Amino acid sequence: MKIYLDFENRIAELEGKIAELKSLAAEGGGDDGVSIAEEVAQLEKKADKALADLYARLDPWQKTQVARHPERPHCIDYINGLITDFMPLAGDRKFAEDLAIVGGVGRFRGRPVMVIGQEKGNDTKSRIARNFGMARPEGYRKAVRLMDMAERFRLPVLTFIDTAGAYPGIGAEERGQAEAIARSTERCLTLGVPMVSLITGEGGSGGAIAIATANKVLMLEHSIYSVISPEGAASILWRDPAKAQEAAKALKLTAQDLEKLGIVDAVIPENTGGAHRAREKTVRDAGDAMEKALLPLLHMTGDELRRQRREKFLSVGRNL
């Protein structure tokens, strides 16, 4: 059963009618199968046009809702679709394993790589186990461990970003959440191997940048990347979470805004209606974009990669 967003009511209505007519035709109902088929074709054409028109003019808050759609491809989907011979690696060797951060070695288009990503889960049980993609300090310390390993074995690093932010719980703060995020961000900057990051859904605050301080940062068309969630910004600025729509517009969190600002390097188009409507195609397109971004980096020395990464993020501050 499809999940429709609040602003997709018209699409839901049209696709519901199409499903009813197809069911009626399959059961042999109606007096004229040809007329039913014609009506279905007309409704499908109407639904496709309505969907295209709607997604051509999404506002920042609507894009935020699309970025959070539970059926969007998640980190594990990208790993399954793009990485062969994947071997997951667990634990930070200090405290515990954090299932919100997935990591391991594998092959990307024939090249050995290290993969690190945030995984939200795809049902109630897995979402709870993975803490809805919100990593604790041990998750970021695991990421640092894997980046250390990648540099030791000269493996390019690919990261997949999808988190509302780092977990803000008392236990996480007691175990040094801020320090863990800072160390992970620092390790990204000091890596002597190529690093490419893809924001697949939400790129929330330091929880995202801790594994996204890369040589190349890519975003899916309807993903978001911001220093704080719209709801959080609305609570701080207006003391009213209901003003999240205004906050989303002010934050400039869309892929299109961030590309103009030079914060991300490329925007990957999504299928009409969002990545969740063409999951396999989205994964393939993301893989093509990541490979294109990675290839030039493979010819750079460690010092060149560090310098390029450093200048990339310093230039963001200079240009804003």
Could you describe the 3D structure shown?
It is a single chain. The protein is an alpha/beta fold. It has two domains: 6-57; 64-319, 2-enoyl-CoA Hydratase, Chain A, domain 1. It is built from 14 helices and eight strands. Helix 1 (9-26) runs antiparallel to helix 2 (33-55) and helix 10 (230-237) packs across helix 11. The mean pLDDT is 93.
If helices are DSSP runs of H or I spanning 4 or more residues, what is the number of helices?
Answer: 14
H/E series: HHHHEEEHHEHHEHEEHHHEHH
Instruction: Tell me, rounded to a whole number, the average pLDDT.
Output: 93
* Overall outline: globular
Beta strand count = 8
Structural class: alpha/beta
The CATH superfamily label of the largest domain reads: 2-enoyl-CoA Hydratase, Chain A, domain 1
Broad CATH class of the largest domain = Alpha Beta
Biggest sheet: strands, sense, closure? 8 strands, mixed
- The span between the termini is 44 Å
| Rg | 21 Å
Architecture (CATH level 2) name of the largest domain? Alpha-Beta Complex
Helix residue percentage: 40-55%
Number of domains: 2
Low-confidence stretches: none
**How much beta, percentage-wise?**
15-25%
